[in-house]
Specification:
Immunoglobulin-like; four-stranded antiparallel β-sheet; 1 helix
Length: 99
């Protein structure tokens, strides 16, 4: 058996920074308190946020922005949920754990 590998280029630090800055991310997951924080990419200032159960049922809908990036989830029971962040050009879904 012969295995052939194609060469690939590596990411530079600048490439990595541009990837990190082009997408949303979530802090404090699993969530131990009442708030989940959304980190925005540099090009986006606000987004619609949807909290969903694992079946896709919408539990909560709100608008968040760079100025107010925290999502209150204190009223949710412990468990697994999805948070979907949606702008005109971007849609990103994260699994979150509420402890």
């Amino acid at each position: 058996m012969t295995t052939k590998f194609n060469s690939c280029s590596s990411l530079s630090i600048e490439d990595q920074k541009s990837i990190e800055n082009s997408d949303f991310s979530i802090l404090s997951n699993p969530v131990k308190g009442d708030f989940l924080q959304v980190v925005f990419p540099k090009s986006i200032k606000k987004t619609d946020a949807f909290i969903l159960d694992l079946s896709g049922k919408k539990i909560k809908q709100l608008k968040i922005s760079v100025d107010k990036p925290k999502v209150f989830i204190g009223s949710l029971s412990k468990g697994l949920y999805l948070i979907q962040l949606k702008t005109l050009s971007t849609k990103k879904t994260f699994k979150i754990i509420k402890e």
